[in-house]
Amino acid sequence: MTALQEVAPREREGVRREALYFAVRNGKLVTGFAIVFALLLLGLVGPLFVDASPNEYGPQPMSPPGGEHWLGTTTFGQDIFAQFVHGLRSTFVVGVIGGGIAAVIGMIVGFVAGYLGGIVDEILNMLTNIILVIPTLAVLLVINAYLGIRSVLVQGVFIGLTQWPWAARAIRAQTFSLRTREFVDLARMSGSGTGRIIAREIAPNMSSYLFMTFILLFGGSVLIASSLDFIGLGPTEGVSLGLMLQNANQWSALQLGMWWWFVPPGAAITAIVGALYVANVGLDEVFNPKLRET
Amino acid sequence: MRRYFGRKLLIYGLTFFVAVTVNWMIPRFMPGDPVASMVARANVTRPEAVAAMQAYYNNLFGFDQPLWQQYLNFWAALFRGDFGLSIWLFPTPVADVITAAVPYTLGLIIPSVLLSWVVGNWFGAYAARRKLLDNTVLPIGYVLTATPYMWLAVLLAWGLGVLAGLFPVAGGYSFSLRPNWSWDFFLDLLHHWTLPFLSLFLVALGGWAIGMRNMIIYELESDYSTYLAALGAPARLIRRYAFRNAVLPQVTGLALQLGVIVAGALVTEIVFAYPGLGSLILNAIKNKDFFLLQGTFLFIVLGVLIANFIIDIVYVVVDPRTRAGMAGANA
């Protein structure tokens, strides 16, 4: 998304302290992470304070936000706040699993292709390009439709398996520019193996880049998961923010004017993903001295 | 240039091959017995539909045949344009159902993609390195790209449709009208088209503006910009050069974003009950119409591949390096 530049290798301890110095002073980074952590906390702690289970039918259907039901209730009397806090959990789970798996595959493919080059690179690059072109959601639609029982975990795994190609490409390009550096040559001459060079010499020098890639993959996974849920291929048990939107749409919350049903889940997804993107720009500025505003 | 197109076509050909293979594999290698569970879950009341379904599944899966034979049969059916019969609209062929829906989806996607790309790039290029504008365009852009497509669609439908009553919120045209070539019908079509279009346009807009802004800043910091500035070239001229260079990654970006945009169009159509591919998919899932779902999948993949190829051609036109056979676009 953003134009990232390679980070020149420097002394590690100093870099870390310098990064921290700029990190706490970067408004974008602090605000972004603050929003994400606030919502994460709400998702972790919230369910402990809600008695109603999220899908339990209640006696007061269609009531607007108020004292008893903080965010109102659905057409079936389900407590929207309860759904919301549980839905936040699923959203973070999908993001971590989907983003995590995609990041790991992207890193393996990117590092190996970029470092080894030659025929391995050709094959992996071809594979990456092929999967890159196939529209992710379309594949996920077919897979999920055939899965009888769907869970948040499985959804995250499949999202991770389909979302890695752009990350692999980006990491490959970075690795490519690092592999001809002197310190890599030195490691090679002193007899280090491929795996060791990648893990000890190349990866640490682009750790900030890898972290930012993970953040973008996390945000992407959350958005894809919410689309899948909305189409009706969300988890068969439990709640998620996307499922809340789907239910609101399916039971005509729009026409009935029940805004409290569809505004909170969408706002939460937008807040999480948007905050992550903004934090990512902040991180970019922290790690890349050229972008810092003085 | 020949090499460039050859390579691209090879990748697209392989992609299509992989997509078809995946499409063939999923029902066969998923856990459980697909035929039994599909027939059971289909919940069709009409006995002729059940019989046709069983016959169709058995015929298509052809479990008595070896796997390679099944696979070849699958390809053969594909080349005949035979995607099976739709369960939902039994007994219409899936190919017919899809061709009826495609114009709506294309009519929504093509204008919104092109307009959001042009307007987004223009905004981004204009905002870069202009403090006041940058501080407004950037946050709005981030919020827009982070918005789930269906949520913005729901908000627009609620605000402009239900509350303000300016636009209809469901369907591709009024139920009182029959599709025909009259002026009334066209206006009605346009009226129903506005909100879904606006919602797709707005979400995509943010991403292009941010991307362009970042690219312009990058270009303005490069050596040639500094050199031009040192020569005393006017800022406008430098910006124009920067724009020409910055547009190239945006063209590639358009190709990369196609999948996301298509996904966005599908959910937007569902919100507005717009009679395109999105609504087809929703109905296919509701009615367990797997033929329709898989047919739509192949259709979307094919559409994205064709769009990619068109973008490749555009790239050759805008980037002279690819024409000269230099490695301008390995992407």
Please provide a written account of the structure.
Chain A has helices at 12-24, 27-49, 80-116, 118-133, 136-146, 152-163, 165-178, 182-189, 194-205, 207-233, 241-250, 259-287. Chain A is an all-alpha fold. In chain A, helix 3 packs across helix 7 (165-178). Chain A is elongated and about 75 Å long. Chain B has a domain at 2-12 and 100-286 and 310-330: Orthogonal Bundle (MetI-like fold), CATH 1.10.3720. Chain B is built from 13 helices and no strands. Chain B has helices spanning 2-29, 34-42, 47-61, 67-79, 94-127, 131-146, 149-163, 183-220, 223-230, 235-271, 277-286, 290-318, 320-323. In chain B, helix 5 runs antiparallel to helix 10 (235-271).
Short structural description:
Chain A has helices spanning 12-24, 27-49, 80-116, 118-133, 136-146, 152-163, 165-178, 182-189, 194-205, 207-233, 241-250, 259-287. With 294 residues, chain A is an all-alpha fold. Chain B is globular.
